[in-house]
Amino acid sequence: MYVQYNMDPLILPMDLEILIPNQHLSRIVHTAVEKMVPNILNQLFPGGGRPSFHPKMMLKVILYAYTNRIYSSRQIAKQLGENIYFMSIEAVDKEQTEAWKEQVGRVENMTYDEELDEWICANQKRLTFQYEKYKQRKIDVEPVFGQIKYNRGFDRFSLRGLSKNTTDWGLICIAHNLKKWEGHTQKKLKKCKE
C-alpha cells in the first residue's frame, strides 16, 4: 500500500500569499514599497509606447533580489520562475512570446566585422569597444562600503556611468536596510513570544 501520489494536484486557495509567513522579508519589502508616495515613481515613467510593468512591482523585485544577494538580471529572472517568494511579489501573468527575434541588441541578431573589430546591430549601427574606458573601471569597492561588500556579497557595479551607479548604490543601500529591518523585527517577535 502506498500513499496517494498525484503530479497534478489542485491546491486551494490558489493564492500564494497564504504560503508566505507573516513576518517574511518579502512581505517587509512589499510593505515598504507600498508605503512610498506614488508620485515619486509616476514622475519617472512618463508613459507612451507598449504598456510596461508597474514600477512598484519592479522596485519590489529588485529590492527583494538585492536583499537576497542576487544582483544578476538573469538570476533574478530565474528566481521569478522558481521561487515562491519572488512569484508572490511579481504577481503577473507570464507572456509567451518570441520577441527576442526582433530585438536589436541581442548578439544573435548581430554580425561581427573582424577587420574593424566591431559588431553591427540589426539596425546597421556599429558597436565599438572602448578599451581605455574599460581599463579605468574599478574592480574593488572602497573600504568605506566594506560592510555591504562583505555582508551582501556586493563587489562591483553592474552598470556604467555615475547616474546609473548612484541609482544602483541607492537600491543596494535600501535592500541592506530592509534586511536589517527584518532582523530587528525577528528579534522583537522572539521577545514577544518569551
Describe this structure in words.
By secondary structure, the protein is mainly alpha-helical. It has 2 domains: 12-41 and 54-95 and 144-186, no CATH class; 97-129, no CATH class. The protein contains 8 helices and 3 strands; from the N terminus they run αααααβββααα. It has helices at residues 25-34, 38-44, 55-67, 73-82, 84-90, 131-136, 146-152, 162-193, and strands spanning 111-113, 118-120, 126-128. It has a 3-stranded antiparallel beta sheet with strand order 1-2-3, with no helix packed on it. α1 packs across α8, α3 crosses α8 and α4 (73-82) packs across α5 (84-90). The relative contact order is 0.11. The model has no long low-confidence stretch (mean pLDDT 76).
Q: Give the helix tally.
A: 8
* Low-confidence region ranges: none
Query: What is the arithmetic mean of pLDDT?
Result: 76
Number of strands: 3
End-to-end C-alpha gap: 44 Å
Pfam families: DDE_Tnp_1_6 (PF13751), DUF772 (PF05598)
Domain Transposase InsH N-terminal: 15-89
Domain Transposase DDE: 114-180
Protein name: Transposase
